[in-house]
Amino acid sequence: MKSNIFAPTAAIYLFQHLHKIMPNHQIILADFDSFLTDDKIKGINAPLVTDKLEKPTEWENYDDYLIPRGQADICFPSDFQYLQHAYSEITSQPCSVYKNKDFVDMFALESWATTKNYYNPLREEYVNTSLLVTEYSKGQGPI
User: Fold this and answer.
1) How many structural domains comprise the chain?
2) What Rg, from alpha-carbon coordinates, does the chain have?
């Protein structure tokens, strides 16, 4: 069975370009790692092609990404494990991947992100997001 593969070429180009012009850079990348809808388009890292309808809570998802320009939004999930590997191969620098909840737990004070009724949108709403964080090396100096 043949499967489509949607490669993150723009992310690879970003890594190559940053490494070339700013070898001592530090970055944090955040994006969706999956979508909370049915997969209409099949394949590895397949996009979600969607259009908002009249009501703000209604969406139409398409089963093809070859649609007229401007008709819908095309969003690709990010494969953070692949991006971590690609980043390290391109730059020879380590990086880490965190689920959003884990990142918030590690780096944010609870009081910063919790409402008066103890709701924490950073932990509870973004379950399908991840972050790639480069690791700081001593001697790199400021960017």
Assistant:
1) 2
2) 18
Q: Which amino acid is at 65?
A: Y
Residue with tokens 């909370």: 36
pTM of the model: 0.82
Q: Which DSSP letter does residue 5 get?
A: B
Tell me, yes or no, whether 138 lies in a domain. Answer: no
How many CB atoms sit inside 10 A of residue 16's CB? 13
pLDDT digits (tens, 9 = 90+) for 12-53: 999 999 999 999 999 999 999 998 887 789 888 999 999 878
Q: Are residues 95 and 128 in the same domain?
A: yes
Taking a C-beta distance cutoff of 8 angstroms, is the pair 2, 43 a contact?
no
**Together in a domain, 24 and 42:** no
